[in-house]
Specification:
Length: about 210
């Protein structure tokens, strides 16, 4: 099993969104409150009308939107985003509700330098509507995961997780709301840990210096 260390070369984030952008806001707030030592170089949206873009503009962060309909293939769409991130000298890509699957070429362009936040305790309940999947399954605990992105959906080494109990009175929506609170807490923490370096990937484990 191979082990290697690969911390991002700088602390410049590219945050990719498609919608409301509450995780983007959590990252903006953590930087402002100095809980996270980083800067957001650009916010990229897969939708020009994503409400999260307004959060970026309010914080004085540059934004750019890419519509996949404007590209012939997924590779071309991915390549356009990768070029923009490279142009802005982004060291760590943070997916925050980004609803397009990025291909293996994009992932290879940012080795161990793409993070995603997912609203379940992976590897349970990958894919869309994970909070409802968990609630319908009847699990007693669910939660949130931040992981390094690989070409597989919602896979890759786990950097942080938080457990959220499922209450008898919960609906899928009330569970999702409590999971979101944990997402907002652990995403900036995970970004800080990855930027700080001193970790290795051992198999599929993210191993931090003790
Ligand atoms: C979050 O629940 C995140 O875990 C999932 O998409 C949602 C994005 O929410 N990947 P927001 O746009 O950050 O508010």
């Amino acid at each position: 099993m191979s082990t290697r260390t690969r911390a991002p070369g700088n602390r410049r984030l590219g945050v990719l969104i498609s919608g409301r952008g509450s995780n983007l806001q959590a990252i903006i707030d953590a930087i402002a409150e100095r809980r996270l030592d980083a800067e957001i170089a650009v916010v990229v949206s897969s939708r020009p009308d994503a409400p999260g873009l307004e959060r970026a503009r309010r914080a004085g962060i540059g934004t750019v939107a890419f519509s996949h309909q404007d590209y012939d293939s997924r590779d071309a769409f991915d390549a356009a985003i990768a070029r923009e991130l490279e142009r802005r000298d982004v060291g760590l890509v943070c997916l925050a509700g980004f609803m397009r699957l990025l291909g293996s070429r994009f992932v290879a362009a940012f080795p161990n330098a793409i993070l995603n936040v997912h609203p379940s305790l992976l590897p349970a309940f990958r894919g869309l509507d994970a909070q409802r999947q968990a609630w319908e399954h009847g699990v007693r605990v669910s939660g949130a995961t931040v992981h390094i992105v690989t070409p597989e959906l919602d896979d890759g080494p786990i950097v942080r997780q938080a457990v959220v109990p499922v209450l008898p009175t919960d609906t899928a929506d009330s569970l999702a709301a409590r999971i979101l609170v944990e997402e907002h807490r652990i995403y900036p923490e995970a970004i800080q840990a990855v930027l700080d370096g001193g970790w290795t990937i051992d198999g599929r484990r993210f191993v931090e210096r003790p």
